[in-house]
Design brief:
GO molecular function: ADP-dependent NAD(P)H-hydrate dehydratase activity; NAD(P)HX epimerase activity
Radius of gyration: 26 Å
Number of strands: 17
Subunit structure: Homotetramer.
Structural class: alpha/beta
Bound molecules: ligand NPW, potassium ion
Keywords: ATP-binding, Isomerase, Lyase, Metal-binding, Multifunctional enzyme, NAD, NADP, Nucleotide-binding, Potassium
Number of domains: 2
Cofactor: K(+); Mg(2+)
Shape: elongated
Oligomer: single chain
CATH superfamily of the largest domain: Ribokinase
Strand content: 5-15%
Family: In the N-terminal section; belongs to the NnrE/AIBP family. Belongs to the NnrE/AIBP family.
Distance between the termini: 26 Å
Largest sheet: 11 strands, mixed
CATH topology of the largest domain: UDP-N-acetylmuramoyl-L-alanine:D-glutamate ligase
Length: about 500
């Protein structure tokens, strides 16, 4: 599903109004959707609407009137003077036939539900003064909160908390999700997110051309590789994972097994000779080859069928690792660079980026976590506030020429062409040793099958998150690969692929 920034949402609004639907009709639908959600949340008891001066407050007035018409006990607390309201919000307030309560936290009382209609997409500065005090009182009230469009205090486009924010149990947003419903910390404040249809036609998206989507199967349905009945293992690609030295071979083995599970036809572990016995003893379907240096690696890659590589897990931070990366890049192989392969370029990534950009048609994915990201992109790290995770990853992709995947509970994947996905399906127990190694292997498995980097990374992240949910709490990295077949089966069912 596409995700719209608040600016893109305003455009959707304007295009719809230009095509003949009055703005007030959109507000009526929005308010009714909020009332509907409120009815579902609490079947009885009083409801308090906290309304701001803008259209978010307008939605709140419509919801209040609708709920009162359905026989609910409703009151409205308004931030400003009623006769200072303007435009559609003023119209909506006219539909509320009762008095409004002054903007005083005491007025909240102890209702069954609070509807937060204070600020939505129009929030443009940190919350201070009376609104700040009210947000604190709403959160301290202990009553479930239904947020209109966004929890007040959350920046819709970046997901940042602007001073303070309402903690909602549920958020009703309109037409499409906004980045803040997926990015942290915003997502933590939203509770369950409902997307309501308010009469904006999907065709407006042809004009807006949104570049961001939630990382769901529909985002990459048509890139998903389905093995052909007449295919053979070589048609499914051959992934190569570079192993670390004797003391650190496990990470590469995790990646190798994951690449095989993800569907690569064959997987070879390129292992230092002195670690060969350890690697071979621990592997069965994954093949092992002795590779001690970049020259031998180049020889291995002389076989053109070996089409995708993983370098980084357990590789060691060294000039040797850098040479392996450059060898794979000059051999024009699809490539996942993770962990030590990223840190090996810390502080001086320009040669890496040049080499990535020089390669044509080669698919490269960088998979840093928040600790590794600033080593390659110091000036676009989160130490420089003001840019959202989405913007930072987009800038990193453009700078490096690679698809960049910044891990986290809200993993963002961006392509140098500007497209991005945000994932919200990772359970908290996925943060465990070795999970990142498995992810790089899964992505390489899809690259080996000929999937382009942006889609391979998005598919990989989604399957990785689903596998963690499938395995459940107590997960260790080894489990992820073992439950992948169950995730494949669900996906095949969803896509209607027979098996
Ligand atoms: N687009 C659509 O399709 C549809 C949109 N709809 C709804 O409209 C909502 C957006 O409405 P909106 O633009 O009127 O802004 P909103 O969030 O109500 O803020 C109001 C004003 O508050 C002010 N303000 C800002 N920050 C502040 C602060 N920290 N502390 C104090 N004041 C602050 C600022 O005004 P200022 O003070 O700068 O003049 C701002 O303009 C959207 O979320 C959705 O619910 C639906 O009706 C259906 C269709
Ligand atoms: K709100």
């Amino acid at each position: 599903m596409d995700v719209l920034t608040t600016t893109e949402m305003e455009r959707a609004d304007r295009l719809t109004i230009a095509a003949g639907t009055p703005g007030f009709a959109l507000m009526m639908s929005a308010g009714q959707a909020v009332a509907e959600a409120a009815m579902d949340l609490v079947e009885e008891g009083p409801i308090v609407v906290v309304a701001g001066r803008g259209n978010n407050g307008g939605d709140g007035f419509v919801a209040a009137a609708e709920l009162a018409a359905r026989g609910r006990e409703v009151s409205v607390i308004l931030l400003c003077e009623r006769d200072s309201l303007q435009g559609d919000a003023a119209l909506a307030a006219k539909g509320w036939k009762y008095p409004v309560l002054p903007f005083n936290p005491q007025a909240l009382g102890k209702p069954a539900l609070i509807i937060d209609a204070l600020f939505g997409a129009g929030l443009n500065r940190p919350v201070k003064g009376d609104p700040l005090e009210m947000i604190g009182a709403i959160n301290a009230n202990g009553t479930p909160v239904l947020a209109v469009d966004l929890p007040s205090g959350i920046n819709g486009t970046t997901g940042a908390v602007m001073g303070a924010a309402v903690q909602a149990a549920e958020t009703v947003t309109f037409f499409r999700k906004k980045p803040a419903h997926l990015l942290l910390p915003g997502r933590m404040y939203c509770g369950r997110v409902r997307v309501a249809d308010i009469g904006i036609a999907a065709q407006v998206l042809d004009e807006i051309k949104p570049l961001t989507a939630e990382n769901l199967p529909e985002a990459w349905r048509w890139s998903f590789p389905v093995p052909r009945i007449d295919g053979h293992k070589y048609a499914r690609g051959h992934a190569v994972v570079v192993s670390g030295d004797l003391a650190s071979t496990g990470a590469a083995r995790l990646a190798a097994r994951a690449a095989l599970r993800a569907g690569a036809g064959l997987v070879t572990l390129a292992s230092p000779r002195d670690a060969l016995a350890v690697n071979a003893a621990a592997l069965t379907a994954v093949m092992v080859r002795a590779v001690d240096n970049p020259i031998q690696f180049a020889e291995l890659l002389g076989d053109k069928r070996l089409n995708a590589c993983v370098i980084g897990p357990g590789a060691g931070v060294s000039a040797r690792t850098r040479d392996f990366v450059h060898t794979a890049l000059s051999a024009q192989r699809h490539l996942v660079l993770d962990a030590d392969a990223l840190t090996s370029f810390a502080g001086a990534p320009d040669r890496l980026f040049e080499a990535i950009k020089a390669s044509d048609g080669q698919q490269v994915v960088l998979t840093p976590h928040e600790g590794e990201f600033p080593r390659l992109f110091s000036d676009i790290s989160n130490k420089h506030p003001g840019r959202s995770k989405l913007e930072r990853v987009r800038a990193a992709a453009e700078r490096s020429g690679a698809v960049v995947l910044l891990k986290g509970a809200d993993t963002v994947i961006a392509s140098p062409d500007g497209r991005a996905t945000v994932a919200a399906n990772a359970p908290p127990w996925l943060a465990t040793a070795g999970a990142g190694d498995v992810l790089s292997g899964i992505i390489a498995g899809f690259l080996a099958q000929g999937v382009a980097a942006f889609e391979a990374a998005s598919i990989g992240v989604w399957m990785h998150g689903e596998s963690a949910s499938e395995a459940g709490p107590g997960l260790i990295a080894e489990d992820l690969t073992e439950v992948l077949p169950a995730v494949f089966r669900r996906l095949y069912d969803e896509f209607g692929i027979e098996y």
